[in-house]
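Dear Dr. K.,

Following up on our conversation at the group meeting, I've run the structure prediction for U1 small nuclear ribonucleoprotein 70 kDa from Hipposideros armiger. I'm pasting the input sequence below exactly as I used it, so you can double-check it against your construct before we proceed with anything downstream. Let me know if the numbering doesn't match what you have in your notebook.
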Amino acid sequence: MTQFLPPNLLALFAPRDPIPYLPPLEKLPHEKHHNQPYCGIAPYIREFEDPRDAPPPTRAETREERMERKRREKIERRQQEVETELKMWDPHNDPNAQGDAFKTLFVARVNYDTTESKLRREFEVYGPIKRIHMVYSKRSGKPRGYAFIEYEHERDMHSAYKHADGKKIDGRRVLVDVERGRTVKGWRPRRLGGGLGGTRRGGADVNIRHSGRDDTSRYDERDRDRDRERERRERSRERDKERERRRSRSRDRRRRSRSRDKDERRRSRERSKDKDRDRKRRSSRSRERARRERERKEELRGGGGGGDMAEPSEAGDAPPDDGPPGELGPDGPDGPEEKGRDRDRERRRSHRSERDRRRDRDRDRDREHKRGERGGERGRDDARGGGGGGGQNNGLEGLGNDSRDMYMESEGGDGYLAPENGYLMEAAPE
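The predicted structure tokens came back this morning:
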């Protein structure tokens, strides 16, 4: 397919010209021939010096040895400088030391940002100040962190010496001492190997945190007081924790008791609801049984010849008691209520088939027979002992226990008591 491409595209696939061959300028290393072959060092041994004439080897200094040597040299130079300055040091003839030495207070470890006016405000509370001398570096002009304060009265200096030590000024605790250069014989400043000392004795277990005076008894007492105070705070914290634990346990017990009481109340309410529900269910069952009994009696009465037997009417079918028993209502025997009952009764009978009525009748007859055999004796005793009038039972001897409980015999024998409301209802007309 490439032959059909245009010439400009075919030119892209054309091969290049071959690379021209050029002869090398010189021979390769492996092609060169050496005129002199390799030989050993035997001819040059006679040029070496005799080992017996060589000097002994020297031992070089290690890094640790060099550092130790420099440290010793530095200490020696410093000791020489201290000895030279100590010979020249005379505090009594120092031109910078002015004023009364017994009224001058030495303040060290001062913050570099603290000014002379700030020092004056802090130390004037102990008495009137005559002069404050801040010490600065001669080379850089920066403060060196200590000053001398001269009071007008010696008692004010003693008060400041006693109470101002450890006072925090601009975030740093200062060290307060008397001027010892002119008051203590043989005392030397720290730069000459003396000074207060005591704060850099060794490790953390040896160093002390207070001022570096030799008399540390009051600081030891302060440390003991501080330790006792710390122990007292720890004991108080432990008591508070224990009290809080007891309080939390009591709260938990009260919460659990409240929850148990709440559960008990809820269970009691549920039990009462269950009892009410069971009571309603039993009452509904009793009403349902009474309704079924009324229907059966109506069917039996309708199928047995249309009222040859004189049976008491049900509580729901009997007319209201508007007059004395034995009399008809105001509408007569064919009143609208009686007609409505007959019409409903006929409708229910028409809805049932003959086979269903026969099966129901046989089942009811068997049930009444069993009930009569089981409770006949008790029914006769109840009729004989608790009946009113002449021992009438209104045709309830053949009914079961449930039917006899629903229909109660009246004292006069003319009606019966309905189980729903306890009213005296008159008997159905024959």
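Two things stood out to me. The first helix runs from residue 7 to 10. The mean pLDDT is 75.

Best regards,
J.T.
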